């Protein structure tokens, strides 16, 4: 894994291997489920780190459709906001999973634009409990973010926060095809 950040338009894009709850950014994205009431994986880690106030705010949101995203405050997290995106469960690829996954990334960037956020970090949505194939998801994640960047001019830093070196390499290999090193 080369680990090089890429400049794409106004934004620096990078892949890191880290616990997303440790990141001091304007928003971290949560791989949530449609209840928005917590769960395991990165969702559980985010709620644990943010504290009970996060769940209290989530209870006011009335859930979220697959492919959509909703924003809350970050509470005890170093991140100012959490964008709760609901990725698809993988059923083999013929039930609109690709489009729903892409929509998670696009909606997250729309929320950045609406809230004038400058930095965002994404986990590899749907690739854990929801079983979306990791290589296919990495391609969708990076391409969708690259395509959506022009719609959020204040967004100058986007991070793909992977939880394993293997996931990091998948994202880096896709990212290396875009923009220029920086
Ligand atoms: N930081 C960054 N990435 C993480 C972390 C972390 N702390 N913890 C896990 N990952 P998953 P999904 C990675 O299962 O597949 C929950 O129960 C993980 O290795 O968290 O979208 C929700 O409530 C994987 O690459 O989310 C839903 O019910 C990626 O995050 C359901 O799971 C996503 O794995 C959502 O499933």
TrEMBL record:
PANTHER family: GANGLIOSIDE INDUCED DIFFERENTIATION ASSOCIATED PROTEIN 2-RELATED, MACRO DOMAIN-CONTAINING PROTEIN. Residues 1-179 form the Macro domain. InterPro entries: Macro_dom, Macro_dom-like. One of its GO terms (molecular function) is O-acetyl-ADP-ribose deacetylase activity. PROSITE patterns: MACRO (PS51154). It comes from Bradyrhizobium jicamae. CDD domains: Macro_OAADPr_deacetylase. It comes from the Bacteria. This is Appr-1-p processing protein.
């Amino acid at each position: 894994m080369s680990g090089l950040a890429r400049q794409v338009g106004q934004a620096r894009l990078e892949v890191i291997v880290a616990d997303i709850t440790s990141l001091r950014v304007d928003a971290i994205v949560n791989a949530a489920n449609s209840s928005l009431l917590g769960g395991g994986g990165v969702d559980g880690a985010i709620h644990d780190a943010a504290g009970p106030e996060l769940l209290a705010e989530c209870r006011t949101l009335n859930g979220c459709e697959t492919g959509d995203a909703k924003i809350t405050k970050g509470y005890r997290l170093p991140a100012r906001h959490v964008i709760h995106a609901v990725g698809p469960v993988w059923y083999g690829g013929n039930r609109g999973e690709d489009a729903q996954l892409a929509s998670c990334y696009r909606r997250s960037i729309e929320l950045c634009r609406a809230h004038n956020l400058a930095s965002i970090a994404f986990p590899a949505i749907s690739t854990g409990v929801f079983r979306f194939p990791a290589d296919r998801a990495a391609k969708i994640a990076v391409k969708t973010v690259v395509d959506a960047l022009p719609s959020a001019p204040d967004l100058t830093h986007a991070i793909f926060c992977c939880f394993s070196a293997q996931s990091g390499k998948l994202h880096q290999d896709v990212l290396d095809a875009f923009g220029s090193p920086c």
